[in-house]
Amino acid sequence: MAIHATAQVHPSAVIEEGASIGADCKIGPFCIVGPEVRLDAGVELKSHVVVTGWTEVGDETEIFPFACVGEVPQDLKFRGERTRLVVGKRCRIREGATLNTGTEGGGGITRVGDDCLFMTGAHVGHDAQVGDRVILANQAAVAGHCVIGDDVIVGGLSGIHQFVRIGHGAIIGAVTMVTNDVMPHGLVQAPRGDLEGLNLIGLKRRGVERSEITALRAAYQMLAQGDGTFLDRTRRLAEETESSHVREITDFILAESGRSFLTPK
Fold first, then answer.
1. pLDDT digits (tens, 9 = 90+) for 180-225
2. 10 belongs to the catalytic site
3. Which of 176, 210, 231, 233 is paired with 66 by a 20 to 30 Å CA distance?
C-alpha cells in the first residue's frame, strides 16, 4: 500500500494493501479502495464510495457518495479474467453511478476520457470507450462495447444499445433508446431514437465557424434527400466535400461497424 504523505484519509475508510493513493487525494468516510486501484493526484472520494478492480482514476477526478467504480462486468460470459477500467482526469462521477471493468472478449479495458460528467445513477458498461467531455445525464446507461465520441451529451433516462457508436459532438435527447450508430454532430430524440437534425447549439457553443456549419447543413440535406442509397450518398459526399467537419461524418459512416445507422429524415 502506497499512500502519499499529503493524502487525507478518513479513519473509517478502508484502503486495501496494494492500493496507490496519490498526492493531495481526499478519501472520505466509509470509502473502500481495492488492492489494485491507483488514484492519481488530487482525486477525491466524497464518502461511501467503492473503487475496486484493476482501476486507474486520473488527476482531480471527484467521485460522489455511493458510486461504484471498477466492479466486474454485468456480462454472463465473464469468468473472472483480469481486466481494467481507466478513468481520465477531472471527471465528476455523481451519486450512485456505476462503471465496470472490461471483458476478455471485448478487449479487456473500459476507458473514460478527461473532463466527463456522469450524473446520478449513470452507467458505463464493460469495454465501452468513452471520449473527452462526455455528459451522461441522470440514469443514462451506456451498454457494453459502445464507442462514445468526444463532446457527446446523453439525456436523462436514455439508453445506448451495446456495440453502438455515437459520433463526436452528437446529442441524445432524454428518454431515448438508441439502437443504431449516430453520426457526428447528430441530434437524436424520440423514444426509439430518430435522427432529427444537427446539434447546431453544440456546434455554436464549441465555436465552429459559420462556413463549417453551413457545409454541415448542406451535407445533411444531401444525405437525407440525394439520389441512391444512404451509403452511395455518403461516398459521393466524401469525394466532393472540402469541409473537415463533413469529412468527419463521412469517415464515421464509411468506417466498419457492427450496427446500422440512424439516417436523416
1. 999 999 999 999 999 999 999 999 999 999 999 999 999 999 999 9
2. no
3. 176
